[in-house]
Specification:
The chain contains no helices and eleven strands. The protein has strands at 2-7, 10-12, 18-26, 32-40, 47-52, 58-60, 68-73, 78-83, 92-100, 105-108, 112-116. It is elongated, with a radius of gyration of 14 Å.
């Protein structure tokens, strides 16, 4: 089992920036694979935002490429999402996840609200 906790959401005006952070806490001896972020906007299904493997390979949704940057610290099992040039359509609850390598099972955080509005 892996505990996942994210933070950093808030209210920001269009064009502004936010940085989301997430920490995964696996049991001792357990390795974390891919980590990443999904989001769910009102009335929409959850969608992938960005992922990053333990080898630092990244993947981004087309809608956020060039604006968002995902990074991680493998030693600390943390992942961050730097969000720049935010748009109203970025408004959503952002969920962090961490994959437990041995099982390929994804563990999810509680979500953090990001609201982009003037």
């Amino acid at each position: 089992q892996v505990q996942v906790v994210e933070s950093g959401g808030g209210l920001v005006q269009p064009g502004g920036s936010l940085r989301l952070s997430c920490a995964a806490s696996p049991r001792s001896g357990s390795s974390i694979g891919t980590m990443g972020w999904h989001r769910q906007a009102p009335g929409k299904q959850r969608e992938l935002v960005a992922t990053i493997t333990s080898g630092l390979r990244t993947n981004y949704a087309g809608s956020v490429k060039g604006r968002f940057t995902i990074s991680r610290d493998n030693a600390k099992n943390t992942v961050s999402l730097q969000m720049n040039s935010l748009k109203p359509e970025d408004t959503a609850v952002y969920y962090c996840y961490a994959e437990l390598k041995v099982s390929s099972y994804d563990y999810w955080g509680q979500g953090t609200q990001v609201t982009v509005s003037s």
